[in-house]
Amino acid sequence: MDAPLAIDRVDDASATAHWKFWGTFLWGLLITAVFLVLQAGIVYGVVASSQGALSESEFMDRYISAATSGSVFSIATILTAVLCCALIAGVVKLKKGAVLSAYLALDAIPRALILRWLVLLVAFIVIADVVTYLVGRPIVPDFMSEVYSTADPVWLLWVALLVAAPLFEETFFRGFLFRGFASSFLGVSGTVLVTAGLWALLHVQYDAYGIALVFALGLLLGIARARTSSLWVPIAMHSAANLVATIETAVLT
Question: What pTM value is reported for the model?
């Protein structure tokens, strides 16, 4: 039996027509730009809808406050996930001969395979939490505490973290980008590293230690994508990791 964490193969690297390296890179830049503009635009819209005239300094204070509001974060995460996933699907369909389910590795897989990787995820989380505790770092990052305490309704935050965020981020990083990069000079191993790094950089709300943990988790998600030839596995793992993080936040905050 193959070692579960080996990353020397991807069974579906050429399963469908797909954008090559530069096409993936340029479309990826566009999708990233749309994501960032949507996120900023939603926060701006919330602040701009406030009653009364605001000075420039007051507007910036309100903007920063809204950006860390759990309610605004939830709405922005859900809306951008829906719109950006639709954009990714559109970009895939623009490629002649591409089949969406094959492109994003969305074919059904055995539940036992997902459970196997979820067990590995649990081991990763336990190790990460133990190391975090031993080095004197908080288990719950300040950003998560702030977002959770200001979420109203709180169930919307759970939907954003457990459904919307994993769906978009995995579709983009371990789906669209992975497909185009894995068949390029980067290879599978390089793609796992690059997508984990790019995903970690997306989490600028955390400090350097938090970003490093996100990068390590990204490596595990990328390996899972490579070994299973399925996007469902990293989506399930990402959602499960966010579930654990949200429960920790609810209990420890």
Answer: 0.92
